[in-house]
Design a protein that fits this description.
With about 325 residues, the chain is an alpha/beta fold. Helices cover about 35% and strands about 20% of the residues. The chain has an eight-stranded parallel barrel with strand order 7-8-9-10-11-12-13-14, surrounded by six helices. It has a four-stranded antiparallel sheet with strand order 2-3-1-4. Strands 5-6 form a two-stranded antiparallel sheet. The radius of gyration is 21 Å and the shape is elongated. The structure holds phosphoenolpyruvate and manganese (II) ion.
Length: about 325
């Protein structure tokens, strides 16, 4: 339920309602709006709770939250959420770009690409140090050494570091180096991991599972929000279909749909979404046109030599070109990049 307070309700009345919610065995989550405060009362449905809260001083009305994902829903918060992680800002007028290699491979590679993507206008540097690979024989990432190199790239460029965490027991380690914790597509429904990143104080980029519905995606985000971490970004990265001309199928209707159902910012990853470098820039432009708040793109100084996902990585020149084109589309729809 959402308890909508009357405009100008005092802090004392708000605190009293919070106390009442907690006495009813529910969790409270306060959202301070420009005009009025609303308090979400979350938990199992309880008889009489609505009436008990409705009669409280300062309460305007109590309305049920229909969506199964409560804190992520626009029913609870209409204003769009902007997630900031140092210089990286996603969810405002300016579209944030997170770019970099699939994996951190060496000091030279990550420092070189960091300087290139920064120069081209990215504000986030991606790079996996812990890599989820389909085959156990594939390169698994540089692990902590990779994290150290990412931190070095941040200190040279000021870029915010976005890197994947694969296991709850690694959250503390990765959070020691990263600005944004990435939960990969394969882990979208790893509930202990979602709770662990929800307990950290870093922003989280949650990637959609390749076979997850929108409801499952938003409920996964809800696991993170419920732990008190409100800095969640949703990332569409393509789903599995019968189609095989692309690695995955990139459904861009996800962007306006999510903008209708959630206040969380939406990022699109056209690299994994297509799996082909030649298709990435066009789909990045389409994502911007569809209203994406951010882009996540794989770029490598020498894609042919990449240790993972080289076939979908842009060269530095192709990335610069993509940025210039996306900027034009952003301007056309009243945004910036
Ligand atoms: C990645 O970002 O490199 C990655 C592994 O992505 P996903 O989890 O979407 O497959
Ligand atoms: Mn990759």
């Amino acid at each position: 339920m959402i308890v909508v307070m009357k405009p100008g309700a005092s802090q004392r009345l708000i605190d009293h309602i919070i106390e009442r919610i907690e006495q009813l065995g529910l969790r409270s989550h306060v959202i301070v709006g420009t005009e009025r405060t609303v308090i979400a009362a979350l938990g199992e449905k309880r008889d009489g709770a609505k009436q008990a809260l409705e009669t409280g001083d300062g309460v305007d009305k109590v309305v049920p939250i229909l969506a199964p994902f409560k804190m992520a829903s626009t029913e609870v918060k209409q204003e769009r959420t902007e997630v900031a992680a140092n210089g990286l800002k996603i969810g405002g007028k300016r579209i944030g770009v997170i770019a970099g290699p699939c994996s951190v491979e060496s000091r030279e590679q990550i420092l070189e690409i960091a300087a290139i993507v920064r120069e081209a206008g990215a504000t986030g540097l991606r790079g996996g140090a812990f890599k989820p690979r389909t085959s156990p024989y594939s390169f698994q990432g540089m692990k902590e050494k990779g994290l150290e190199l990412l931190a070095e790239a941040r200190s040279q460029t000021g870029l915010s570091i976005v890197t994947e965490v694969m296991a709850p027991e690694h959250v503390k380690l990765v959070a020691g180096y990263a600005d944004v914790l990435q939960v990969g597509a394969r882990n979208m429904q790893n509930y202990p991991l979602l709770e662990a990143v929800g307990e950290s104080n870093l922003a989280v980029l949650l990637k959609r599972g390749p076979s997850a519905t929108m409801e499952e995606f938003l409920l996964a985000a809800e696991y993170i929000l419920k732990q008190g971490n409100t800095r969640v970004m949703l990332c569409e990265r393509g789903i599995r279909t019968f189609e095989d001309h692309t690695r995955f199928t990139l459904p861009l209707a996800t962007v306006p749909f999510l903008h209708q159902t959630t206040h969380l910012p939406v990022v699109v990853d056209p690299s994994h979404g297509t799996g082909k470098a030649s298709l990435v820039a066009t789909m990045a432009r389409a994502a911007v046109a569809a209203g994406a708040d951010g882009l996540m793109v794989e770029v490598h100084p020498d894609p042919e030599k990449a240790l993972s996902d080289g076939f979908q990585a842009l060269t530095p020149a192709a990335f610069r070109q993509m940025m210039a084109e996306c900027r034009q589309v952003a301007i056309a729809i009243g945004r910036e990049l």
